[in-house]
Amino acid sequence: MNIQxxxxxxxxxxxxxxxxxWSSFYLTNLMPHLTAIYHFCRTVDDIGDMKKKIAxxxxxxxxxxxDTCFNKNCNPSDRLxxxxxxxxxxxxxxxxxxxxxxxxxxDTKYNRYETYKDLINYCKLSANPVGEIVLxxxxxxxxxxxxxxxxxxxxxxxxxxxxxxxxxxxxxRIYIPIEDLKKFNVKESEIINxxxxxxxxxxxxxxxxxCWDMFNDGVQLINLLKGYKKIPISxxxxxxxxxxxxxxxxxxxxxxxxxxITKSEKSILTIKTITSYxxxxxxxxxxxxxx
Length: 291
Known about the structure:
By secondary structure, this protein is mostly helical. It has helices at 3-17, 31-48, 52-70, 81-90, 94-107, 116-126, 128-138, 143-163, 165-170, 178-183, 188-192, 198-218, 230-249, 263-278. It starts with a helix and ends in a 13-residue tail after the last helix.
């Protein structure tokens, strides 16, 4: 076994370890395919965080590797080899993968978004395709399924932006619309310099409430799914809400503290969701924001 092949196996193993919300018996048969998708997403995200010139070259190389993958010409030593079988088995669309690459290419060119609509359009490339791919693997691809999935995925992306404001600012990126900064009288320099203010906290609360509404708007997707496939989607929503709860608990001081869900909390979320599923309880409840 050559070095590249060993590296591929190591990365896939690491990917399995990063699936705490999915590492249960109910997804055993799909785990190799879901980890292949996750591995691709992590690869493209890691490239997007590189310096601009390097990232541009690496993203072009990844796009070429993706073409090879879709042409079924991958060798076992190729980094996307595990993905080729998944693409073939589930007839996954290339546009979804290309969108993820494009989103990270945009990250090398833009680090601000003027309006909330602009940010949503970015999420259509950076987050929504992942939901479309997962739904396709689960056997669903109707417009209704995808529209609801998009709300959840966009919500998850924005929750991540709120969670990672400090980290993103260190990379020179601000994923809060400029129009919202102005509305709450928050200066970009305050975010870059990690200076929390009362106005900043109010801004993050506003964004958190709007994000919470996205989960409520998309949660009905769970009712459209059959069997155990309800569980991971419910966990997506629960984990997104949990991040927002964590942000609320630190009084929206995400410039000072990065709120995280601990392994034990992830386990509790998983156990509660599986238990509710087994007892036939609803997994698609809308919930009021915390006051």
